[in-house]
Specification:
This protein has a domain of 61 residues: Nucleotidyltransferase, domain 5, CATH 3.30.420.40. The chain is built from 1 helix and 4 strands; from the N terminus they run βββαβ. Strands 3-2-1-4 form a 4-stranded mixed beta sheet, with helices on one face. With 97 residues, the protein is of the alpha+beta class.
Length: 97
């Protein structure tokens, strides 16, 4: 696959069929949240949602929450899977003191 595999595909997510099980898989983060959508184990779309690095953390989390609410409404998944959250850094010195 050429280019960055994490860029949003330009195709639309098709409407969900009645007898299809749709799964939304998330790699959630406050900077870049990755997602993939599967219908009956078949990948139908994937991409990222990005927030501005200059925004305060609380605002970035709120932006991700609002994006996720809209995604759930539009894509109508039956299940949502979230990757285990890992603390990458905390504060300017990257410690949890």
């Amino acid at each position: 696959m050429a280019g960055d595999p994490y860029k949003v595909k330009k195709n639309k997510v098709p409407q969900k069929d009645e007898n299809t099980t749709r799964i939304l898989a998330l790699d959630a983060a406050t900077g870049i949240t990755g997602y993939a959508i599967y219908d009956d184990k078949r990948l139908i779309s994937y991409g990222t949602f990005k927030t501005s690095a200059i925004l305060p953390t609380a605002e970035r989390i709120n932006n991700v929450k609002n994006w996720l609410k809209a995604a759930l409404k539009e894509w109508e998944p039956d299940f949502v899977g979230v990757e285990n959250i890992q603390l990458q850094s905390y504060g300017p010195n990257k410690s949890q003191t």
